[in-house]
Amino acid sequence: QVQLEESGGGLVQPGGSLRLSCAASGSFLRINAMGWYRQAPGKERELVATITSDDRTVYADFVKGRFTVSRDNAKNMVYLQMNALKPEDTSVYYCNVDTLLRVGVRGRSWGQGTQVTVSS
């Protein structure tokens, strides 16, 4: 079983920055992809950014050039640096990891979510 603990959300003014962190712990052989999704009230959860174990990244078009995803494999952590934040970035942000739980068994885990509010 994998536990994810997120931190770093909060209230920020438009144009400001925040850095989200997510730490993975528990029982697994390896972490594969890690990433961030977000869900605003009344909307479906959507991909923000992902990063593979060999640091290949994918970004949603609406965050390209503003957000950067990174990971620290030694610490089992993933980060999301968010710059030039806009009010439309207001959402609950969820950490997601894809793991190899044991030989031949993959798992996918979600964090509890952290609120990001962009407002003046």
Distinctive features:
mainly beta; 7-stranded mixed sheet; 4-stranded antiparallel sheet
What multimeric state do the chains show?
single chain
How many extended strands?
A: 11
Cα end-to-end separation: 40 Å
Query: What portion of the residues fall into strands of 2 or more residues?
Result: over 45%
Q: Could you estimate the helical fraction of the residues in percent?
A: under 10%
* Helix count from the secondary structure assignment: 0
Series of H and E elements: EEEEEEEEEEE
Largest sheet: 7 strands, mixed
The rough form would be described as: elongated
Poorly predicted spans: none
Radius of gyration: 14 Å
* Overall average residue pLDDT: 96
* Structural category: mainly beta
